[in-house]
Amino acid sequence: MYCKHHYDSHAFLLYSIPKNACPTVHREYWCEPPTPPNHSERGGTAFNIYLPTSEKEVIEDKKPSREVVKGEGTILLVDDEEMITDVGEQLLEKLGYSVTTVASGGEEAVDYLKDNAADLLISDMIMNPGIDGYETYKRILTLHPNQKAIIVSGFSETDRVKKAQKLGAGAYVKKPFLLERIGLAVRDELER
User: Fold this and answer.
1) Which of 3, 51, 55, 76 shows the smallest number of beta carbons within 10 Å?
2) Given a cut of 80, is residue 170 above it in pLDDT?
3) Cα–Cα distance, 16 to 2 (Å, whole number)
4) Domain limits at 79?
5) 47 and 91 assigned to the same domain
6) pLDDT digits (tens, 9 = 90+) for 54-75
7) 48 and 80: one domain?
C-alpha cells in the first residue's frame, strides 16, 4: 500500500492505491502525519489512520482530451492589462489566429473597429478606467451588428456578462487563459 502524507499548517493528505496496483502490500496499513519541528512545544493532535486495501480493480479515469483546438481567423483581444493581452496574443497565435490587441480598454477597441473588422472580439469584462466589456460589446454592435464575441474575466460571472450574452456574445471564459479552454471557446464561437 502506498501512503503519502504532507504536513502544512495542520493539513494532512492521504492517498492510497488499491491492492491490485501493488500486489505485495498487506491487507491493512497505517499512516501517521510527520511530526513537525518542536511539535511537543506547539501542542496539537496526533492521529493514526487504519484503512483496508481495496479488492477492486484499478479503473483509469476517463479524462477529457487535452487536444489543442486550432483554427484561423482574426481576433481583437481587449483587456486593460498589457500583460494579459501579451499572454493572450501568444496563446491565440499558437492556435493559428491573427491577433490584434488593445491594452487600454473598451473605448480604444470601439475606435479600432470603426475602421477595421475582426472575426471575433475577446473582451475583458472589468476594465478600469473606462467602459466595461458589456458596454464595449454594445457599442461595437452598432458598428458591426453580427460581431461574434467572448467575454473573459478573472472574476465570477456577473449580470453584466449575462447582459452581453443576451446581446449575442458567446461563451464566458474565466481567467487565467488555458490553451485548451480558450481554443475550444474560440472555435465554438467562430462556428456558431
Assistant:
1) 55
2) yes
3) 5
4) 74-191
5) no
6) 666 655 555 555 667 889 999 9
7) no
